[in-house]
From TrEMBL:
Domain Peptidase M1 membrane alanine aminopeptidase span(s) in chain numbering: 308-509
Gene that this polypeptide is encoded by: LNPEP_0
Lineage, top ranks: Eukaryota, Metazoa, Ecdysozoa, Arthropoda, Hexapoda
Cofactor note: Binds 1 zinc ion per subunit.
GO biological process: peptide catabolic process; proteolysis
Membrane topology label: Lipid-anchor; GPI-anchor
Protein name as it appears in the record: Leucyl-cystinyl aminopeptidase
Family membership: Belongs to the peptidase M1 family.
A Pfam family assignment: Peptidase_M1_N
InterPro entries tied to this protein: Aminopeptidase_N-like_N, Aminopeptidase_N-like_N_sf, M1_APN-typ, Peptidase_M1, Peptidase_M1_aminopeptidases, Peptidase_M1_dom, Peptidase_M4/M1_CTD_sf
Length: 577
């Protein structure tokens, strides 16, 4: 999802263009005379303790106000897990009706003996539920509003769900389309003849899929999906997968089963009277949908999507796995959403008017497209284990939106924008002591929403680039390839990334002072950044680099330390590595 865009500072273009090396966070470039690398010393290195817990770093001295944690556990119990969803939705949104009806069948596996299945649900009425594995049994629903838990227990006391068995859970219900831009919602628009049209669309990240259908609404609980939408014959429906022409009929659109498992927040559907244009690149179909009056403004967004998606696949050496990509322009929507195979955008960040548009608006559109399409790998191909690790998808989406744009539109020199914008915003916010660590636990929907800020976008994109620059493009991209392949269609946490990078380091025989598991957490598990002081001794012809924790409030002190990669050159060897 894209609310903000942040960036990196140093770039080594794959076309081998010469670029200027710029200071990135604490990546320090120093020009000195007559020194060898052995004569440079580093002070105050952190301990080499690869502890897998953010409790190893204390935060109060950073000046950050940490809100108290929720008293109850908002996570679903792990006694059952989804395998496949069959979803049927019926809507009359064509005439502005907000009511919709739903039926979901969830094939689930029982992980631990239990009698109760717990799923998420929001604002649903007339819930009827049953379960079957040969015989069908009625379930008694109970609902807890605070955690939005729908608990379902067999009516018969002798029905037990035993570990290792599979069951089909069936739930029917009614709901109402939201008028706000979340969950399953309704949007009106007025055409040139002053006629009002309506559409129904979705915005499920991070905890809103439960408004459209009862589900295991957590990012690591992936499953396959088959979706059916019943709608007026004058409307069309689109979803993550292509339409199944054989199974569909007038007013009933059935979509192919997802070819891979998908987190619930990445499921999407859109019901409207939209029109589309289409093309393809290397056999992959691309479509762009909008109000019929905007079809003339499709070209730039459609072509950019094609080039960016292929560029990202080349950078990661991992293919885009969905059978097609659709991009949808939605009026009055803010930002964009990376639903797998069906990406939704506000009209202003997807549609380009060739008559009135500018290069600045082209950049804005392409940058948002690149951000969302990076998510097709970081967040979709590999999901985050939990929202604690939101930076694993948003940080990469921010970084690689610029990486790929420099390939597709090299004449824009996009890194200049990052130097003066995104990087500076990270330094300013973090220097004020108002940014939590990259890895920061969140539990309630409110806490999760608060994660969408500097600590998930600007700072991690800068930190990730720092490590890319320190390890080198070849090693870093090899590590990302390993991360994407090993964790494909699953979920990951930061340690999975660290291990993938370490594997690439080992494979390429790169010398580093400590393991990635030791070095990277000094940036991901504590807030702030260091101030580096370089002291040169002209008598001994050496220099020393020391670090102190930086905060705009000079009365705050901390003994935090960081692993800081830096470059320097001597007069005799003036070229940077």
């Amino acid at each position: 999802v894209c609310f903000l865009n942040y960036g990196r500072l140093v770039h080594e273009n794959m076309r081998n263009k010469l670029k200027v090396n710029v200071v990135l966070l604490a990546t320090l470039a120093i020009i000195v005379s007559g020194l060898t690398i052995t004569e440079a010393t580093i002070g105050f290195l952190p301990p080499e303790i690869p502890a897998e817990s953010s409790s190893r770093f204390a935060e109060p001295d950073a000046g950050i106000v940490l809100n108290p944690r929720a008293d109850i556990n908002y996570r679903l119990p792990n006694n059952t897990e989804p395998i496949h969803y069959d979803i049927e939705l019926t809507t009359n949104v064509h005439n502005g009706t907000r009511n919709f009806a739903g039926k979901v069948q969830i094939l689930l596996n029982v992980v631990e003996d239990t009698r109760t299945i717990v799923v998420h649900a929001r604002e649903m009425e007339d819930i009827q539920a049953s379960i079957s594995n040969g015989s069908e049994y009625a379930l008694v629903p109970t609902y807890e509003l605070e955690r939005e838990f729908l608990s379902l227990t067999p009516q018969l006391a002798n029905v037990n769900l035993n570990r290792g068995t599979n069951w089909t859970l069936t739930i029917t219900y009614r709901g109402q389309l939201h008028t706000a831009y979340s969950g399953f919602h309704i949007i009106p628009y007025t055409d040139a003849e002053n006629k009002v049209h309506y559409m129904a669309t979705t915005q499920f990240e991070s905890t809103n899929a439960r408004h459209a259908f009862p589900c295991y609404d957590e990012p690591a609980k992936r499953a396959t999906f088959t979706i059916t939408i019943r709608h007026d014959a004058s409307y069309n429906a689109i979803s993550n997968m292509p339409k199944n022409e054989t199974a569909s009929s007038t007013g009933v659109t059935v979509f192919d089963k997802t070819s891979v498992t998908v987190p619930t927040y990445l499921i999407a559907f859109h019901i409207s009277d939209y029109a589309y244009t289409e093309s393809s690149l290397f056999g992959l179909p691309h479509r762009l949908y909008s109000k019929p009056s905007e079809v003339g403004n499709h070209q730039f967004g459609l072509v950019s999507g094609m080039l960016v998606l292929q560029g990202l696949a080349n950078l990661y050496n991992v293919s885009f796995v969905m059978p097609r990509l659709a991009q949808v322009a939605i009026p009055s929507k803010g930002g964009a959403m990376e639903n797998w195979g069906l990406v939704t955008y506000g009209e202003t960040v997807l549609l380009y008017n060739k008559t009135t548009g500018t290069t600045a608006s082209q950049f804005s559109i392409a940058n948002i497209i690149a951000h969302e399409l990076t998510h097709q790998w970081f967040g979709n191909h590999v999901a985050v284990r939990w929202w604690t690790y939101l930076w694993l998808k948003e940080g990469f989406a921010t970084l690689y939106s610029y990486e790929v744009l420099d390939e597709v539109f090299p004449e824009w020199d996009v890194y200049q924008r990052m130097h003066v914008g995104d990087y500076q915003s990270a330094l300013i916010s973090d220097g004020q002591g108002i940014v939590v660590p990259l890895t920061h636990y969140a539990q309630t929907p409110t806490e999760i929403s608060a994660r969408y800020g500097t600590s998930s976008y600007a700072k991690p994109s800068s930190v990730l680039f720092m490590w890319q620059h320190a390890l080198g493009d070849k090693v870093f991209r090899s590590g990302l390839n390993k991360y994407l392949i090993k964790n494909a269609f699953s979920s990951a946490e930061e340690w999975d990334l660290f291990d993938a990078l370490q594997s690439a380091v080992n494979e390429q025989q790169v010398s580093i002072p400590a393991s990635i598991r030791v070095m990277f957490p000094t940036w991901s598990q504590q807030s702030g950044y260091p101030l580096l002081t370089v002291t040169r001794n002209y008598n001994t012809n050496t220099f020393t680099v020391t670090q102190t924790f930086y905060n705009d409030n000079k009365t705050l002190t901390s003994d935090k330390t960081f692993y800081v990669p830096f470059n320097y050159v001597s007069r005799s060897k003036i070229r940077f590595p």
